[in-house]
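Hi W.,

Here's what went into the run:
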Amino acid sequence: MKTQTFSKGLLTEVLDGSTRAIARLISCVETNNADYSEILANIYHKAGQAHVVGITGVPGSGKSTLLRSLVQTIRGGRRTVGVIAIDPSSPFSGGAILGDRIRMLQVSEDPGVFIRSMATRGALGGLARATLDVVDILDAAGFDVIIIETVGVGQDEVDVVQAAHSTVVVSAPGLGDDIQAIKAGILEIADIHVVNKSDRPDANKTITDLTQMLATNLAGSSENNWTTPILPVSASNDHGVADLLKALEEHRAFLQSSGEIVGRRRRIAMYRILKTVRGFMQESMAMSQNAIMQDLLDRVLAREIGPRDAALQILASVNENNLK
Amino acid sequence: MKTQTFSKGLLTEVLDGSTRAIARLISCVETNNADYSEILANIYHKAGQAHVVGITGVPGSGKSTLLRSLVQTIRGGRRTVGVIAIDPSSPFSGGAILGDRIRMLQVSEDPGVFIRSMATRGALGGLARATLDVVDILDAAGFDVIIIETVGVGQDEVDVVQAAHSTVVVSAPGLGDDIQAIKAGILEIADIHVVNKSDRPDANKTITDLTQMLATNLAGSSENNWTTPILPVSASNDHGVADLLKALEEHRAFLQSSGEIVGRRRRIAMYRILKTVRGFMQESMAMSQNAIMQDLLDRVLAREIGPRDAALQILASVNENNLK
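Here's what came out:
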């Protein structure tokens, strides 16, 4: 009864844009507190207005600096912006490193900017579920632009940044071989390419390489008459960041005018539902740390049955157990 | 009938260590071909002898060079070794970059070495399922040591490298901030730390930092009287690699003598079963691209219901549908 009253107040406060209320609700999302599922359903109902932007890039591409500059440029145009930074570090590191990045981002005490980090391994029920719930919260709270920032490595990180309307991939000149391999894995998800550190002499080669790669990739995101731009940016002195913002606006307008926004929303919703299903499955299995599970585990360890057979039997028991 | 005969031949050939048969069965694993589930159950039954080693490290730590040197050192001791290299690049890049790394690794035509790359995004039914099936295949085929190598970023990549008996985390001096953040996320999974490029003047600082971090981390893997060593290595000229191999042997002996191998096998089997359950769920959902799914998706898009409610209804329908 008390929770209910509290929740109603919290919903109103979030919709009014109270920073404190937003932060509190996000904490509930992170701990996957089921008491708040009703309030989140209400939030979801109200969301859907913001421009959701994904920014990803390889380590060393200067994403953080770009993000800070982009946030300032958006604010220069009077629009409000929420940032969800996916922290690649673990609970073990105490988020100290990301903390520094976040502080660097803080545009003094501007209430038109809300920044929150999410730990990759911290979010109960899955990174994607939590991140997209937070997108809804910031959206319903009235932020004009919402940025999801991830490092461009790892399936979850790459997937979640695609759950945006417009995805920006940040490259930079002069990175090593490992990084090139990682980069190759995220190039195709870009609606907009940024080549950061463009003041460096080797930046032109990076731009040329990227141009050639896009030219040969006919299956790229340009299929619907959107030509993926490659923007030289030097974020450390804000060069080119206004062009990036312009390209984001153009991409948003393109999504609307071409009708592609419909397909994209559909893809995002599908992704989100599937990730939520997966989260539920995981919870069910965690709850069924029971006799059946232990027995199957013992038999797998004795190599009597394989993991595949064990998995089939667990699915059968989960079904019977607790899913209505 | 034909498949059955073929499969029986294939199983025998794999158990005999035929490189061609191993490669063919791995391809079946990658495409998640259900026709081979019986043969894989047989393989699982026979496996369990090899020492499974996970090697991970941040981009730029020189993992590939270390791996090549380690493989040569293991071969120098007459033992056979299988390597599963998890490719962080996507199908889009055609695996060209990893191809180069693999070529670099090839120890001429030595039949005592088997190297296979797995694409992070390529494996149907999940990276973990495929990787651990391949571990079984190489194990049953008689390889003494099996190495799983991943870049140390991304939940899947970090998880799968922990599905080993002994996990090595590779660091190197002089890496950037992003890399430091990533590194922080994998330090705690190490049974053995390697500081590569130890010939560099700043390597001592890396070793000191790591030593201090381990000293303050009482929750580390040293809980069962295993003191996680920090080994300076210069893989490019093979310095320290013999020490790494020695540490791996010591860790294996420790797992046996302390009985910790039991808990570790249990954890790996549990992880594997859960990942397999998840793969099945995903297949079920992919199959149910049906009226129910489309209807729920439409309602979510109209913001009538939230993703949470949709997920609950999908679970209910999947249960009724196709799981025995």
